[in-house]
Amino acid sequence: MTACGGGQWKTEKLRELGAEHVIDTSRDSFYARCRAIHGKPDYLGIRDDGVDIVVNYLGGDTISPSLRLLKRFGRVVVCGATAGYESVTDLRYLWSFEQSLIGSNGWTPDDQAALLQLCAEGRLAPVIHRVRPLEDMAEAMQELSERAVFGKSVLTL
Fold first, then answer.
1. What does CATH list as the number for 2-103?
2. Residues 70/77, Cβ–Cβ less than 8 Å
């Protein structure tokens, strides 16, 4: 698995969580580094280069390069748009490589119940950045805006 993070401290945490390859997007292009690691996708599927799935939390101008990284029948799963909700892409990748672009928000009540069940069973361990009281919300929001959070920031009553 290849994972991206904006800063060395984030890429170190990604490696601790099991990422085989990490890319510091504050220093390197995720597209260029992924191509160097995984190779150029082959639309005939003769070579096994490229990636199977890209999970994209950013949107914006990262969607097009995400599609260009995919091998034949690959998928981009979009679950955020912090880099912008508008995206322009070259549709030739979608039809030439028979790719899928999938939206996923996971916020239905059933999705949340399933998530909590996985945590209760110990099959999923959420990554918690910090737990603090609700009155410290301003500090938590400041950390979020400064991109100084890795995982979830939890506020308690």
1. 3.40.50.720
2. no
